[in-house]
Amino acid sequence: MQFPHPYFSSKPSWKWFILINVLIGATMSALDVSIVNVAMPTLKVYFNTSMATIEWVAMAYMLTLTVFLPFFGRLADMMGRSKLYNIGFVIFTIGSVLCGAATSAMFIILARILQAVGAGLLQANSVAIITQAFPGNERGKAIGIQGAVQAIAMAVGPFVGGILISNWNWRWVFFINLPIGIIGTFAGLLILPRQEQAGKKEKIDYLGTALFASGLAFLVLAFNNVGKLGWGSPVVMGYFAGACVLLPAFVFTEFKVDAPMMDLKLFKNWTFTTGNLTGMLSYYVMFAVLFLMPFYFENVMNYSPAKAGSLLTPIPLAMAVVAPYAGHISDKHGPRIMTSAGMLVAALSCFAFMFLGPQSSLFVMIGELVLLGIGMGLFTPPNNSAIMGAAPKDKLGLAGGLLNMMRSLGLIFGVDISGLIFTKLERTSLASQGYPNAQHVFREPSIPLAVKDSAFMHGFMIVMITLLLLTAVSTFLSIMRKSEAIDAEAAAAAREFAGE
Description:
Blueprint: H1 6-9, H2 14-46, H3 51-79, H4 81-100, H5 105-133, H6 136-167, H7 172-175, H8 177-191, H9 206-229, H10 234-254, H11 270-300, H12 305-310, H13 314-333, H14 335-353, H15 362-389, H16 396-432, H17 449-479, H18 488-497
Helix pairs in contact: 2-3, 2-5, 2-6, 2-8, 3-4, 3-5, 3-9, 3-16, 4-5, 4-8, 5-6, 5-16, 6-13, 6-15, 9-10, 9-16, 11-15, 11-16, 11-17, 13-14, 13-15, 14-15, 14-17, 16-17
């Protein structure tokens, strides 16, 4: 028997079953990002290793995922998105089982790399599958629903992880993916279209892929290590030098080969380019806030780690509530209104964060976090929909890979660069007050509490000013976005994808 049966897949409602299957993958990958962070201290003790080593449990995953997302998307354009999406489920599930069965720190790091390959195949294809399944006048709503589910999964991840570790052990943080992966794999085999037309047979651009992946990896590693080693470190300078050589070589190569890994002509489209740029900046802002706020809650407000963690949930929860509505409105009126409004609201939240202090009200802090979540919820689905709508249908996988790669870079740079700025300014403030050698500031009993708070808030406020400037730039770029009509090509692609 053929799956999916043409009788069912030809129905207009079948696209919602396709969305449900994509949501299973979105839930699994988003849950895994936040749930593993809770297990990091436990893993450090269990494997009796250093923090520098155990950090690679997270770093190896993010690095692998980020640098290979465009390649996975391009591969899907060539070989078929449904096929590679299902392979992603299988690889992610196997990687999760191996993580849970790990007997050493190196074992779990290698298993996380395998898991990231599966996650990359899922992420690079998910938005492309939605784009092909839904016509342009429903695409934003569908992407908004996906964004809402991802936000909820990220919000409940730490809570679920805490329960699993407390009642069983850390291995169940990974084993929980096994039933989700099995359900997603079989659902994909039954639901996703089998008559999908893959792109024409082309050679894989191995040289371009190697240059891009290695160059981007060097860039990410440089920013990741500069806070620990300093700008003058030979290691950091070597990473930057590698990126400066390899990335231009990649661009040169892509213009020379017949079938490039990345079609750079996509960036001639203003909507595509500004959408990816503002998407990266939005994730930079959000994850800079998510990185710094726990330190503010614990060090300045003296909240417990559990309370500090729970106070971050308003951001993803507000995103989850707003995202589907933002996508639906953008389907009717275009993305410019919602993306501009979202970045403006995010800018207001960053402005409000600048006035926090040691005596701030809990309700004020929650309100500011909710405001940021609303801004991100208003911005993200319409922006993603606009990016995918601007890409040719034979490049949807590459477009989806680039979209997710830019978001991952925003996450990495938001944490690394904001952390670097904050640390430098905090130490400069302490030095000006007579404490030039302070390292672990809030553990130093010799430093008065008022001095600690003053130094912390100095660095915190300047970082928020930089985030305010970035949201202002994103708001301007969103306002300048052209207001496109609903594209008929996306609707035609949806009908073709459904086998009509």
